[in-house]
Amino acid sequence: MDRSLQNQIEWWKAVLYSINDGVLVIDHQGIVQMVNPEYTRITGVIPEKIIGKPLRQFRPGAQLPDTLRDGKCRVGVYRKEGEHEYVVDMAPIVVHDEIIGAVSVCKSLTEVHKLSKELQKKKEKIQQLERTMDSLHQAKYTFDQIIGKDRGLKQIVHIAKRAAETHLPVLIFGESGTGKELFAQAIHNNSSRRERPFIPVNCAAIPLLLLESELFGYEEGSFTNAKKGGKMGLFELANHGTIFLDEIGDMSYDLQAKLLRVLQEGKVRRIGDTKEQDIDVRIIAATNHDLEQLVAKGRFREDLFYRLNVFRLQLPPLRERREDIPELIDSFIRSSPVNTLDGPRLVDSVEGVTLQVLQSYDWPGNVRELKNAIDYAICMADGREIDLQHLPVLIAKAKQTSPDLLRKPDSQTVREVLDEVERKLIIDTLERFGSDEKREAAKALGFSLATLYNKIKKYKLDSSKIPND
Ligand SMILES: Nc1ncnc2c1ncn2[C@@H]1O[C@H](COP(=O)(O)OP(=O)(O)O)[C@@H](O)[C@H]1O
Ligand SMILES: [Mg+2]
Q1: To test the ligand 1 pocket, which listed residue (363, 368, 375) has its Cβ within 8 A of the most ligand atoms?
Q2: Which ligand 1 atom is nearest residue 153's CA?
Q3: Tens digits of residue pLDDT in 69-103
Q4: Cα(26)–Cα(12) distance, integer angstroms
Q5: How many Cα atoms are found within 13 Å in the side-chain-facing hemisphere of 455?
Q6: Could you tell me the fold of the domain covering 6-109?
Q7: Domain 143-316 classification at class level
């Protein structure tokens, strides 16, 4: 054969062999002239068996001879031969208005099926991971666990339950330890979002510059030190759930504008991304600042404030609902992990005066401080009862200066109040003189020694337990 013709044939063969689809060519008589390796891979037909033979002899169902006859293209014809599954496009080869052959191009479906199966598996895996992720971000508290008979508090619980039925923002005010996060969790758990994540974010604890990237996430390469692959923001993580923005008063003015956008549009945009994503997140915000004052000072956006201030919960400090203290103490004793460390139960009550001290203390750290004090006292107690000397020193000491013992609760008679005062005076005096100096103590109290002993008995004071300091 002519050398240049030979070269040309080699060249076209190389072209056909490098195509990623299966190719089969027949001449004007329907005789197979050529198949490429991809055709063999897709259909399982080996070239030696088929080349030079009429196509129909091997493929009785083949439609390529029809294309040869009618000159019509056939597109997307489905074929299944044994385990081989593929689709074929067919076209006539036309030279000078004459059909000189036909070509079929096929794509494997086996692979498509394999890929789609793999995709399905990956989808299931993702769903499983999403469920695991949701369960990692569950809120633990419910309304049943909120203790308090205080009327103000009950009213707040009532409003919070109503809020839980909606997707509207909630704004919680209260000093540290008054139960802001507890309420946020209870609202989430009482809402239709309970199976979805509850994501708490302390806006004061995250450095100002980091907070935006934590909340909104970022795209790869959007700033130095940005993680490869970018990072998902907490809003995205909380999608379909609730985000709890604690200490919202500490959020920067710029970031407040972005938060407002989330509230108004339901969209977030990662830092460095051009596209926005739809998100559906319930926002509960909390603060112990006076937000109105921050608005007046121009440090908190007025528009954001009104947007958040739909349901407003103002939690009272513990010192304004002292009548709830005994029940709180009781519940903390029952649930304290310290109390069940070694066997079934250890401490189960608080001695009378000690309870009064606890009830009259000012609790600047509110319920959290009370809970910690009880844990501490359980640790320090020797028997079943918590006594004065088991309390943290600061609390035990504060009793002398607190005028609250003299405040008459509605339920007590004058006699009871006087008894309390007498009892407190005796304890204080015994402490001052030490339990070995009862004669001195009696003198200071204006009692005879016998009267003092009677009173000690009456008030069930175990004088040996009163410290000598
Ligand atoms: N009304 C309440 N009943 C029971 N536990 C409470 C109550 N209020 C607060 N607590 C407990 O006190 C601690 C502090 O509450 P938290 O919600 O973290 O306060 P805040 O977020 O306001 O600082 C938690 O352990 C919480 O369970
Ligand atoms: Mg908190």
Answers
A1: 368
A2: 1
A3: 999 999 999 998 888 899 999 999 999 999 999 99
A4: 16
A5: 22
A6: Beta-Lactamase (3.30.450)
A7: alpha beta
Structure tokens at 199: 């994501």
Beta strands in 54-190 (DSSP E): 74-81, 84-95, 98-108, 170-173
> CA-CA distance, 205 to 193, in Å (whole number)?
26
Task: Please report the pLDDT score of residue 351 as a whole number.
Answer: 93
- Residue identifier of the C-alpha nearest atom 27 of ligand 1: 182
CA–centroid distance, 198 to ligand 2, in Å, is 14
Place of tokens 């072209």: 15
Q: Which CATH architecture has domain 321-465?
A: Orthogonal Bundle (1.10)
Ligand 1 centroid vs 365 CA: distance in angstroms? 10
The residue ranges of every structural domain in the chain are: 6-109, 143-316, 321-465
Q: Which residues line ligand 1 (CB under 6 A)?
A: 145-148, 174, 176-182, 367-368, 371
Tokens coding 281: 């997140």
Dihedral class, residue 466 (left if φ above 0, else alpha if ψ from -120 to 50, else beta): beta
Work out the angle at residue 158's Cα, subtended by the Cα atoms of residues 153 and 159, and round it to the nearest 5 degrees.
100
Tell me the whole-structure pTM to 2 decimals.
Answer: 0.67
Report CA(168)–ligand 2 centroid distance (Å): 21
* CA distances from residue 417 to 48, 243, 423 in whole angstroms, order as listed: 111, 47, 10
